[in-house]
Amino acid sequence: xxxxxxxxxxxxxVLAFVGVAAEVVLISFHCIALVSSCFVLYGPTRKYVDGEAxxxxxxxxxxxxxxVDAELEKNLESFFLLEYPLEKFEILFCVKDELDPxxxxxxxxxxxxxxxxSRLFIGGCNVGVNPKVNNLxxxxxxxxxxxxxxxxxxxxxxxxxxxxxxxxxxxxIGLVHQAPFCLRGTDLGCQVTQAYSQLLCNEFASRVVExxxxxxxxxxxxxxxxxxxxxxxxxxxxxxxxxxxxVGGLSAFASYVxxxxxxxxxxxxxxxxxxxxxxxALQNPGHLSLTLFAKRMARWIRLRFVIATIxxxxxxxxxxxxxxxxxxxxxxxxxxxxxxxxxxxxxVFWMTADFILLHQIGGLAVDLTRFPxxxxxxxxxxxxxxxxxxxxxxxxHITWGGHRYKLLFNGHGLxxx
Length: 417
Known about the structure:
Strand order of the largest sheet: 3-2-1-4-8-6-9
Distance between the termini: 67 Å
Number of strands: 13
Radius of gyration: 23 Å
């Protein structure tokens, strides 16, 4: 009886084993993401002969616009320069207000590239609370192509992007998406690997944003998609129109603020598969700051909180610093090893894995000379994670597209302006 009592685990020891298990699970996330990145990213660009090019699907590219920034012209023009048969794609620009300065910019680009089929839609349709869906609806109703590419205005598209997205199409694929990342370098007309020739951005805030999308976000994105768990970010999605119509059309998701999540979920439930393109979506915003980045992350956390509440509440324990503290304390309780040593080993492993993954998503060979420029932005992003999470879960209101919304736990939003 005394022996059985001595072998029983105390509540503290049980929690310690949970902490160790969490570390093992998150390390497996790292490993799966790293292995996945070696196989799913940066496949060769296929060269089509004339006969094959005729078999490529027609694609309508829709671009929701709101205002103008310093990089918008370069971003939009990159879609006019796509290496894809001219008769096989069109660009549909969507603006809510005729007085929006983006209208003049679009018309200039249309005059500059008259051979590219493009149209400008002004006004949108009010079909729900989602401003992006409302802005797109007028154009989407006019789409005749079998594929619809919804692409945010802050994305830059290297010439081969559409060809790579089409390569991911199969008969049972309903949606192709891209992992979000950041455009780096100053030569926006170059190929993808050349655009990544500098690991560091000019502004510190840009580097911190790059750390998030190149490490934490990519890790879970690749992990989920390698296990065929639908994980779709709506920045860049190529959607089969038949699949979209099968789930009620784009307007069916206008009452949701996170329309990308619910649209992908509905397409999967309708027995279509989702495919990840081998090229990332390259964000190239005209202005960045740590404050804007923190607000954007808080908005995403609030969306996740109303969609997957329990998962979001546990989210801080998936971050490097807090998980490292939990693991080091747990190891100390179970095996009586040094807290400081265990924590240091955890940090070194996590940092190394992130450093490698950042190169992988950037299409670069690992170069240790870039590590000094990686360290400080990486630490900044990691230290921001918990405060931003705390700020995010303290409220369920977000500001998006110039409007304020209250998020409901059924995934819908209320316009509260």
